[in-house]
Amino acid sequence: MAYTGKVLVTGAGGFIGHHLVSELKRQGYWVRGADLKYPEYNTTDAHEFLQLDLRRWEHCVQATEGVDEVYALAADMGGMGFISAHHAQILHNNSLINLHTLEAARTNGVKRYLYTSSACVYPEYKQLDTQVTPLKEEDAYPAQPQDAYGWEKLIAERLCQHYREDYHIETRIVRFHNIFGPLGTWDGGREKAPAAICRKVAVAKLNGAHEIDIWGDGEQTRSFCYIDDCVTGICKLMRSTYTEPLNLGQDRLISINELTDLVAHIAGVRIAKAHVPGPQGVRGRNSDNTRLRQVLGWEPAISLEEGLARTYQWIETQVRQDVKAKAA
Ligand code: NAD
User: Fold this and answer.
1) CB of 95 within 8 A of CB of 77?
2) Contact 14, 192 (CB under 8 A)
3) pLDDT band at residue 113 using 50, 70 and 90 as cut-offs
4) Phi/psi at 232 (5° precision)
5) 149 noted as active-site residue
6) What pLDDT band is residue 297 in, cutting at 50, 70 and 90?
7) What is the side-by-side strand order in the sheet with 6-10?
8) At what angle are helices 15-27 and 227-239 packed, to 10 degrees?
9) Which of 149, 163, 226, 312 is catalytic?
10) β-bridge pairing 211-215 and 221-222
11) Distance between CA atoms of 83 and 73, rounded to whole angstroms?
């Protein structure tokens, strides 16, 4: 089905935003992207791309002008290493982005607004075990997220709810669980576990070192969702009538040690793990997809093996190019 209408994707220079722009354009929308930066690894498919700082009110007004719908993905964020070391920066910057983007959307008459929240909203006390009970949407309260990042997401979720009730802007709220795939940050300090492990394995393979560092004992567990499923889920939720927060992730629990073994198998190498001190986040986290299935009649289907194979190939290519560039 071909869609018409004008949409804005904020964070369009980032990992998920970049993929989402391509999909929305493919579906027939006119797409504006906005971000501090252009996508790092590929050119954008956006019809118009505005380089803006969405902490600033006037930039948010410019970004949301003349569009029917907003997909709000802009955020100052990264993996555990970044999130656990930048609480004040994250809470400050993302609060400004969220407050100004939603208010500017309202004043510009935007009809529908999708906010990208996170599994990081869930309370620490429900995630103490590696064999964690999958998290249902209502588990978010009583609230006790581990990091400022989770608090900021919870507040923005409430903001969306109240704007819908008080100002009748149609809001949608999605809680992602560890999205990964090609064209995501893979080095520099903001990368997340799957990309970091792919990079470390690729470097070890090319160096012939065959040992990599893992933060903690590696028994911490998560579920991981491939980017194509994530983009499909976002589009389905935006077109649905569902207004409450909704999980979007896989529900296959796997430890970081097992994830490393999987990547090593894909790379065709044997990898020893050196367990070193480092931020690990909660002990275990998994998505309960009951409501996702009920609401969207769908859930992520691309296997971890398939997604990791595509991601590893892309990251190994990046690592090879990086080595070549440094040697030149
Ligand atoms: P990303 O870091 O790749 O993209 C975020 C983008 O926001 C970046 O390109 C960044 O430049 C932009 N940005 C930051 N500050 C800005 C500002 N002041 N003005 C304009 N743009 C700004 O992250 P992502 O993985 O694509 O995540 C997208 C959204 O999904 C974020 O809101 C994130 O919190 C959420 N999320 C992602 C995951 C995941 O696993 N990737 C999990 C949970 C939630």
Assistant:
1) no
2) no
3) very high
4) -60, -45
5) yes
6) very high
7) 48-51, 30-35, 6-10, 69-72, 112-118, 170-176, 245-248
8) 60
9) 149
10) unpaired
11) 16
Task: Tell me the average pLDDT across 25-53.
Answer: 98
Measured in whole angstroms, the distance separating CA 85 from the mean position of its chain's CA atoms is: 18
Is the distance from the beta carbon of residue 11 to the nearest atom of ligand 1 less than 6 Å? Answer: yes
Alpha-helical (H) ranges within 123-191 are 148-167
Q: What's the rounded mean pLDDT across residues 143-147?
A: 95
State whether the beta carbon of 98 lies less than 6 angstroms from ligand 1: no
Ligand 1 in reach of 118 Cβ (< 6 A): yes
Superfamily of domain 6-179+225-248: NAD(P)-binding Rossmann-like Domain (3.40.50.720)
The encoded tokens of residue 100 equal 């100004």
The CATH number of domain 181-222+252-285+302-319, selected from 3.90.25.10, 3.90.1150.10, 2.170.30.10, 3.40.190.10: 3.90.25.10
